[in-house]
Amino acid sequence: MRQRNPDFMNGVPELLILQLLSSREMYGYELVQSIRERTNEAITLSEGAVYPTLHALEIEGALKSKRKAVNGRSRIYYSITKDGLRKLARIAGVWSGVTRAVQTVLEGGKYARAL
Predict the structure, then answer these.
(1) Ramachandran angles phi, psi of 79, nearest 5°
(2) Cα–Cα distance between 50 and 110 in angstroms, integer?
(3) Starting from the edge strand earliest in sequence, which strands make up the sheet with 26-27, in order?
(4) pTM to 2 decimals?
(5) Tens of pLDDT, residue by residue, the chain (115 residues)
(6) Are 67 and 75 within 8 A, CB to CB?
(7) Rounded to whole angstroms, how far apart are CA atoms 89 and 95?
């Protein structure tokens, strides 16, 4: 059954975090900066949004973490798991469908594929 109105806006931090971690491990503040830079500051997430998302993704098994000492500081680095890669594929697919549908409307298209 297809979901009519996916809650894609609430999933944006999750989607961006999973995508960034699919290429390499990062720590929380590094993710905050990467999101800001990669979106040309169109999306600026606070640490208060990123850290709860990281913790929730770790609890559900999409991420794993490990503590590392770097320049005398202890940081928690996150990496994506196989379950996280599957989740990323699923939500990226939904996001792509939504953006295609919105783009169709913006371009004056009459029909958009139902999600």
Answers:
(1) -140, 155
(2) 37
(3) 26-27, 73-80, 63-70
(4) 0.83
(5) 454 544 555 788 999 999 999 999 999 999 999 999 999 988 888 898 899 999 999 999 999 999 999 889 999 999 999 999 999 999 999 889 888 888 888 888 766 555 5
(6) yes
(7) 10
What would the two tokens of residue 33 be?
A: 């900066």
Entry field: residues in the chain? 115
C-alpha distances (whole Å) from 36 to each of 15, 39, 42, 94 are 14, 6, 7, 22
Q: State which CATH number among 3.40.50.150, 1.10.3720.10, 1.10.10.10, 3.20.20.140 fits the domain covering 7-114.
A: 1.10.10.10
